[in-house]
TrEMBL record:
This is Peptidase S9. One of its GO terms (molecular function) is serine-type endopeptidase activity. It holds the Pfam family DPPIV_N. It comes from Coprobacter secundus subsp. similis. InterPro entries: AB_hydrolase_fold, Pept_S9_AS, Peptidase_S9_cat, Peptidase_S9B_N, Serine_Prot_S9B/DPPIV.
Length: 729
């Protein structure tokens, strides 16, 4: 949940002017007229001087030179490939020796990240396409290092395809829906650990490791489905259907997870002996460069202790490599920083109060702390094979991100040149990187740079958008800092009406997400519903309160065991600060949010009186007892351990204290924040005799999209804001 709606583009339609009729048209924004252009994903090649990209028409894979940008070869062309049954493809994967490509088409989404597709292998030299399997769509197809085998999942079982012989064999046979999952992950791992693929090959191609989930005892959740119109599910025309899946709410039973290996030669499946509590987590596994060393990363259920084991796939014995503990929680993103090299690995920890990089030997012995300072590393980028490591950090301040290198003596050098938000993708040898840069006033600019940061050429500068913006009347972000009620500095931005006039007062819409580790106040380009509001006479403001990211462990984790309290207090303090400004109409301030932001809308309106004239809560959690184990217990532990904290953090328990006019919105088929949250909260409001507005969307999930849905949602929200903030001023 935590990162999906930080910058949700909720665009408001039908808004009558609070002050005047603005220049911007909703249809233009919705159609993407002001959307910045992104680059297709880069696939660096091992030669260090070329990379691959899919063409925008999804028909070809082209090889480009980093330095010149020239297309030097076309590796795949759907119109010219032999026996190619498709005209376009959705994505591709290159095998390690770069002789084969795996393409996939006909993607069928499952949850947020998971999907089924028809996979095809393509031999570059033979220009030949072959289907991976003809027995149904596949998931997470994964090349062996030598490219001669592919492991994949179908119907919760793992299969192995030997490409040289064309044979397909079963690795597991016990997979069963809502019971046993092999190779891929259950719902809560996918949502909260951002993992869907647990297949891991040994470097010698002999062993395939994977996770097995037994979710038999996990409580089952049922979502009703109705006929609807877009799409129209005619089978439910007279009676609703249902979708059932395993969803563990806080305090309930999780899947039991185990590590297994499959030996290709003998076809033997073996369970590894990994020390783990029965209710613990294994968020990631991967082989080191040593084929006899499988790295298994574990978390206890409280998620305050991380361990990584070196497991021998032959003996099944595990040895502890590294351990990290916190008096709060371990950031789940830290697992993604773990990177193995032949003689050492990189690890990320917040043990000194900020996330920093550490270099360890393959036995786990600390070699050195690579980065230090009162700032956070925000991404690990690579190692040049000699003595320099590359990373991203916010050392310039929590609003910014830049690219750096550090050598083994601790010398740090900034290599990105522009202040704002920089994100880099390096080739394996770290001789070139592609930098994506933007700031609050500059759309994305992609450049190719050498390892010293020197710009070699521009890939994309969004000139067309910049030209369009030069003739568009729109608002710019002004960053500010103020002190909350306990004297802590909080960062925010404000966007004034694009026809702002001194001496006038304007209504305010506060936008926020506020979830643990999130950030919305960043020096980064965005052009969305905020601009539409400011064009129509509203002030838009945003504040990152306690619990948000980029400011070290103490700031982010100060909300531990009492989620929602300090965050709401900071939004209330922000509203009061804004209300003190001479150009703000302090009697007409609204707060808006989606998902955690919707939850925060309810908490803020319940812990204040008369501060917020109105609020919009979209897909909100209304009681943490309704949300999943991994996310909720990371911050709150279980209800049994912390019932007082759950009650204090519950809008449901505070329904009678709601102050201001509320619009609550939800989709009936939300698999993430269940419709139950909205139903229970609305009933509590009814019994508290609190009037409110409500909008429900049939068969829509957490994103509430599809056909005319978003436009209808925007119209509903903007009409509500117009009525609440601009009428009877």
């Amino acid at each position: 949940m935590k990162r999906i709606f930080y910058m949700a583009a909720i665009l408001f339609a039908g808004l009558q002017p609070a002050v005047y009729a603005g220049d911007l048209d909703l249809k233009d924004i919705v159609s993407g007229k002001y959307t910045q252009k992104y680059q297709e994903t880069f696939y660096p090649l091992s030669d260090g001087i070329h990379y691959l990209q899919k063409t925008p028409d999804k028909k070809m894979i082209v090889k480009y030179a980093y330095r010149t940008g020239k297309a030097v070869d076309t590796l795949f062309n759907a119109e010219k490939a032999r026996e190619c049954p498709f005209e376009t493809f959705d994505g591709f994967v290159l095998c390690e020796d770069e002789t084969k490509i795996m393409l996939y088409t006909d993607v069928e989404r499952i949850y947020r990240r998971s999907f089924k597709a028809n996979y095809y292998t393509f031999e570059i030299k033979r220009n030949l396409v072959k289907p991976l399997s003809d027995k149904g769509k596949q998931q997470i197809a994964t090349f062996s290092p030598n490219g001669r085998m592919v492991a994949f999942v179908r119907d919760n079982n793992i299969y192995l395809k030997k490409l040289d012989y064309g044979t397909e064999s079963e690795v597991t046979t016990d997979g069963s829906k809502n019971k046993i999952i092999n190779g891929t992950t259950d719902w809560v791992y996918e949502e909260e650990f951002a993992e869907t693929n647990t297949l891991a090959w040994s470097s010698d191609n002999k062993i395939l490791a994977f996770l097995r989930f037994d979710e038999t005892e996990v409580p089952e959740y049922s979502i009703q489905l109705f006929e609807g119109q877009c799409p129209q599910l005619t089978q439910y025309a007279l009676y609703p259907g249902e979708f059932k899946y395993k969803y563990p709410v806080s305090g309930q039973k999780n899947s039991t997870v185990g590590v297994y290996t499959y030996t290709v030669e003998t076809r033997a499946v073996k369970k590894m002996n990994v020390p783990l509590d029965s209710d613990g987590y294994i968020p990631r596994i991967c082989f080191t460069k040593n084929p006899d060393q499988l790295a298994v990363m574990t978390l206890n259920r409280h998620q305050d202790e991380f361990r990584m084991y070196a497991t021998n796939p032959k003996s099944g014995i595990s040895k502890l490599m590294i351990q990290d503990q916190s008096k709060y929680w371990i950031d789940p993103d830290n697992k993604n920083y773990v990177t193995f090299y032949p003689e050492f690995f990189i690890f990320a920890s917040e043990k000194d109060g900020h996330r920093h990089l550490y270099q360890h030997s393959l036995t786990g012995t600390l070699i050195r702390q690579l980065t230090k300072g009162n700032w956070d590393v925000t991404g690990y980028l690579g190692y040049d094979g000699k003595n320099e490591f590359y990373y991203e950090s916010n050392a310039e301040g929590p609003l910014y991100q830049a690219v750096y290198k550090v050598d083994t003596k601790g010398k740090i050098t900034k290599i990105s040149t522009k202040k704002g938000t920089n994100s880099a993708t390096f080739n394996p040898s770290c001789t070139y990187f592609v930098n994506a840069y933007s700031n609050a006033d500059t759309p994305l600019r992609y450049t190719v740079n050498d390892k010293q940061g020197k710009e070699i050429r521009v890939l994309e500068d969004n000139k067309k958008l910049i030209t369009l913006l030069s003739s568009t009347h729109y608002s710019h972000k002004e960053f500010f800092t103020f002190k909350n009620d306990v004297g802590i500095d909080l960062n925010g931005y404000i966007m004034k009406p694009s026809n702002f006039k001194e001496g006038e007062k304007y209504p305010v819409v506060m936008v926020q997400y506020s979830g643990p580790g999130s950030q919305m106040v960043l020096d980064k380009w965005a052009f969305d519903w905020e601009q539409y509001l400011t064009s129509n006479g509203f002030i838009v403001a945003c504040v990152d309160g306690r619990g948000t990211g980029g400011r070290g462990e103490a700031f982010t984790k100060s909300v531990y065991l009492k989620l929602g309290i300090a965050e709401a207090q900071d939004q209330i303090a922000a509203a009061r600060y804004l209300g003190s400004l001479e150009y703000v109409d302090n009697k007409n301030i609204a707060i808006w949010g989606w998902s955690f932001g919707g939850y925060m809308t309810l908490m803020s309106m319940s812990l204040s009186s008369g501060v917020f004239k109105a609020g919009v809560a979209i897909a909100p959690v209304t009681d943490w007892r309704y949300y999943d184990t991994v996310y909720t217990e990371r911050y709150m532990r279980t209800p049994k351990e912390n019932m007082e904290g759950y009650i204090e953090s519950s809008p449901l328990e505070k329904a009678d204290k709601l102050s201001g006019n509320l619009l609550i919105i939800s989709g009936t088929a939300d698999d993430n924040v269940h419709y139950l949250n909205t139903l229970q909260y609305s009933e509590a409001l009814v019994q508290a005799n609190k009037q409110f507005d409500m909008q429900i969307y049939t068969n829509r999930d957490h994103h509430i999209t599809g056909c005319n849905t978003r436009l209808h949602l925007y119209t509903k929200v903007c009409n509500f804001l117009k009525t609440q903030l601009t009428n009877n001023k």
